[in-house]
Amino acid sequence: MSDVADFxxxxxxxxxxxxxxxxxDAARLLCAPLDGGPLAHRTVSDLPSLLRAGxxxxxxxxxxxxxxLAGQTANGGEREVLLVHPEDDGAWRVLIRGRVHVGQExxxxxxxxxxxxxxxxxxxxxxxPAGCDVLALAEAHGAIPLPPYITRPAGADDRERYQxxxxxxxxxxxxxxxxxxxxxxxxxxxxxxxxxxxxxxxRVGPGTFKxxxxxxxxxxRIHAEWASCPPETVAAIRATxxxxxxxIAVGTTVVRTLESAARQPGGLAAWNGWTxxxxxxxxxxxxxxxxxxxxxxxxxxxxxxxxxxxxxxxxREIYAEAVRERYRFFSYGDACLFV
Length: 339
Hints:
Blueprint: E1 28-31, E2 40-43, H1 47-50, E3 56-60, E4 62-64, E5 68-72, E6 78-86, E7 92-97, E8 105-108, E9 111-118, E10 124-127, H2 134-141, H3 158-161, E11 169-172, H4 184-192, E12 196-202, E13 225-229, H5 231-242, E14 247-250, H6 252-262, E15 271-275, E16 290-294, H7 301-310, H8 312-324, E17 335-338
Parallel strand pairs: 1-17, 3-12, 3-14, 4-11, 14-16
Antiparallel strand pairs: 1-2, 5-6, 5-8, 6-7, 7-10, 8-9, 9-10, 12-13, 13-15, 16-17
Helix pairs in contact: 7-8
């Protein structure tokens, strides 16, 4: 098994995208054939000529909500609250920037909530008053939670640009960024060439940005996220396989969802639940023939997932080329296509 250091690379800070491309599908696309063929430099708008009739693109339909809220302690101290996900009893799992203790009250968007528990990973349980619609509170008063490597504050445009054009299942605090590049017009062009599409859902949590902080990969404990693979997507995958088409995941969250569904008893089937699947070499992916994804953080679980498809030497070659050619990295950056 590879050491975590094998997935490190040097990234000039100026290549970390702080703004999205002027047009979604104008982002650059580094094409890396899985047969080891030469790398090619294209744009996302070229996808209809890069895919084939009968291929299936699988997207994550999750929607990012404005989960970042301003809070105050009783003595007026500022505490930033990041909503992560609701818990089974109606409380919320949150991250709080600033010191708090169990039993402490915080005023969040005019509502008084109580810190009920502290968890091993540093998250807290925050209980809002009975009947409080926390998602509505976030929509009215929250800010889009841009990733930590975007150093500017979130603006009004981020509510639209840090969101896919088809997002309709609210629940994520981070976007499935590979799909940010798609426009309604591009989806129509792909459909006209015979490329099909299907959807899964994975509610992306803040753990997606956490680097692997152990020396050995197998010692790292990955975060859990809620995911769903519906029956119609399973049927679409089977139909694609039957005609010799390729199943291409748009983003690593799609891969995590499909691989979680495939590892249920009896193989790939409709499924939903919490997944903490950690995909890294020497594992091989069972469900996809290709992947479109953005460039990922050094030493990240997402980079290790991509290596399951490409192999580590090829992955290093691709990232060295991307740095050399000054591609834009991370959530608002450019993309790779592995087919």
